[in-house]
Write a structure and sequence with these properties.
Blueprint: E1 5-9, E2 20-23, H1 34-37, E3 41-42, H2 50-56, H3 63-75, H4 78-90, E4 93-97, H5 106-116
Parallel strand pairs: 1-4, 2-3, 2-4
Length: 119
């Protein structure tokens, strides 16, 4: 089904290999111009709820529970998830995020969710 999903900080350099670049944060990243971001789409609807994001606070010890809660939110967010799945059918998609933690963020959790084929 998918050509591939990549995850990358929005602050990193744009590369041709990125494919379609989709920002998956609810808030625009500080200090990034729209030109630098070079987005195909800003899909803030697929980001975790403000409540979940604040609860998580990028604390690694909350990572497992964050993923569980975020998957539940994604399960109830069929329209936004379907948009991403449609993009994936067309080629590689790079999910962009602004967080400092490259291992514990919503884009990593979202990529795992999409790769697992959850509906």
């Amino acid at each position: 089904m998918a050509f591939g999903i990549a995850v990358k900080r929005v602050y990193a350099a744009t590369e041709k290999a990125d494919g379609q670049r989709v920002l998956v944060d609810r808030v625009w990243p500080r200090g990034v111009s729209k030109e630098h971001a070079a987005l195909e789409l800003w899909l803030k609807e697929v980001a975790p709820s403000a409540e979940l994001r604040k609860w998580f606070g990028h604390k690694p010890e909350r990572w497992a529970e964050f993923q569980k809660r975020y998957r539940a939110e994604l399960d109830g967010n069929g329209e936004a998830v379907a948009q991403l799945r449609a993009l994936l059918r067309d080629g590689k998609v790079t999910l962009l995020y602004g967080a400092h933690d490259e291992a514990h963020n919503n884009a990593v959790a979202l990529a795992a969710y999409l790769s697992a084929g959850s509906q």
